[in-house]
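Minimal example, chain plus NAP.
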Amino acid sequence: MSLEQSGTFALGSRTVKRLGYGAMQLAGPGVFGPPKDHAGALAVLREAIAAGVNHIDTSDFYGPYVTNRLIREALAPYPKDLVIVTKIGARRGEDASWLPAFSPAELTQAVHDNLRNLHLDVMDVVNLRIMFDTHGPAEGSIEAQLTALAELQRQGLVRHIGLSNVTPTQIAEGRRICDIVCVQNQYNLAHRDDDSLIDDLARDGIAYVPFFPLGGFSPLQSSTLSAVAQRLGATPMQVALAWLLQRSPNILLIPGTSSVAHLRQNLAVAELTLSADVLKELDTIGGAVSA
Ligand SMILES: NC(=O)c1ccc[n+]([C@@H]2O[C@H](COP(=O)([O-])OP(=O)(O)OC[C@H]3O[C@@H](n4cnc5c(N)ncnc54)[C@H](OP(=O)(O)O)[C@@H]3O)[C@@H](O)[C@H]2O)c1
């Protein structure tokens, strides 16, 4: 199997394969504390690299700090082509809650923390995770926060900047402040709020990286998806990922898993092509039926 089959995309000066890996699931239950199986978590990361993955999505607020330290333990010194993308803007409470850490001082500290925990001199990509509403995009100016991150870029600590949990208005505001190479919002077969945003970003050469591509904490369940998967001899999760790959060429996948077996299934999607009829059938799941 070759991951190149699903193509590559440029994040500024770095090029990644469209099939990557999201590391959030490696922390303990509720993305808090150490993993249940430390050796198993290291094995997933090493298997991803062995299979050709060169794009890993992470954050210091997974654990907190757990996921980044696992990445460092499993993979440093890093392969030259590996692009590690982190995000800043939140912190964890002692009760595992997700809290904003969105002041310029906290954002600056977060970049330094990520560099130290990952043992890097410069982050390839840092996503500013907008925190006006933890659970979904909400309007509000991001000028102060993005200006602080752009200053760290000028200092050489950050190569490229992305935005997460963001509205089209905020993306437009952000692009007046600095180059934006990627947008990371929730999107999958059943959650399609960003349909038109994805097409707009594709026209501008900006990557769209859906989080929860498999539905996140409650993985996708749909009788249509199961029926299609059975017909194709694939799993429902594989069909959901293949649909995303075919949805738009600027979509990069970062499915999360703590299991080597699931990782292999997810990466095998590089070889799964869905016909136009199947795509049309799958489109009914999100209610976006084209005539
Ligand atoms: N920017 C943001 O606000 C934000 C928010 C959330 C996530 N993220 C990023 O997005 C990445 C992906 O999101 P996610 O991991 O939360 O959700 P996801 O990729 O939609 O799904 C992960 C869930 O699917 C299961 N799974 C994975 N592969 C499977 C397979 N082949 N068969 C059956 N089940 C499978 C996983 O369980 P197993 O461990 O058992 O495989 C896990 O429960 C994260 O790792 C993180 O980097 C970003």
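The chain has a mean pLDDT of 96. The longest strand covers residues 123-129.
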